Amino acid sequence: MNCIFCKIAKGEIPSKKVYEDEDLFVFHDISPKAPLHLLVIPKEHIESMAQLEPQHQAVMGRMMLLARQLAADHGSPEGFRTVVNTGKVGRQEVYHLHMHLLGGPAPLGASASF
Ligand code: 5GP
Ligand code: ZN
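That is the input. Now the predicted structure with zinc ion docked in place:
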């Protein structure tokens, strides 16, 4: 499968990895839109939130729970923004589900700008 994020999760394409476990892989966005801009992805290839099934509940929950620790460990302890773009309407560019984790330390711009 020709998926860039699958290749990143397998280490076949280099990335600035910050966290990895059995289910999740986290790395810096190549084109950061904020002082902290991480991408949190499931290792399993899921195209987008529009393809989620009940068996993905646990991994999606783990993504959300990880955010606070990632933000705190990477210079944004007082809050952060999470964004998941889905499909054409959501202007998703990479069709491997990913959660953007954006942070400061200073307050981000208006949410409509991302
Ligand atoms: P989307 O628009 O699909 O929500 O976001 C895709 C994100 O992936 C963009 O913010 C883009 O900068 C990032 N991205 C695309 N290709 C690469 C890559 O090869 N490496 C990394 N680290 N990020 C990428
Ligand atoms: Zn993939």
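The chain has a mean pLDDT of 96.
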